[in-house]
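Format is sequence with structure; example below:
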Amino acid sequence: MARTDWNPILRSELHKPYWEPLQQFVRHEREHHAVYPPEPEIFAALHLTPYADVKVLILGQDPYHGPGQAHGLSFSVPSGVPAPPSLANIFTELHTDLGISRQATGTLEPWARQGVLLLNATLTVRANAAASHQGKGWEQFTDAVIAAVNAKPERVVFVLWGASARRKAPLIDRSRHALIESPHPSPLSAHRGFLGSKPFSRANHLLREGGRSPIEWDLSVRPMPS
């Protein structure tokens, strides 16, 4: 893990009993299978969103398991890659909620650079095998990330989409922070309450209510410094 302001916060995780077996498992997987995202991008969410800057945490489950899609940010794909179905539904809701037209890019890096931590609960996956790296130790690491964000004194808005993400709600102190929960944006569940949930306007309202500057959700706009 490259040096960022996360390093001193998470360094102790690298010495816990789960860490080395997890790394051995991922190395073995890479020797025998394609694994996503590429190794340099596993911790991209932490590199792009410093701990000091976190205002919103959007929790995903697995990286995308198709070629060229995963780049270390939940729900995001690299620039030029077509939006997968869940991300397409996120963009549909962005338009419904805030009137923002269909985004030309699938990369959510502009959100990450404004303090939106795009964290997956599991940070690697075998190609074409969803959930293949779950239960190997990544969840302990990402729970530590969630706990660190929960320890921040200023308000953070936690966005939990889907049953897996919503199971993390007990980790969050609601006396300081805010939660937005709904079904997952996947086509299998989006119509059950994700579409129409207005998470982007709600997040900005909750940030302002907590004395924090809002997020510019339009990926085509260069946000003003806060």
The chain is about 30% helix and 10% strand. The first strand starts at residue 35 and ends at 36. The CA atoms of residues 24 and 69 lie 24 Å apart. The radius of gyration is 17 Å.
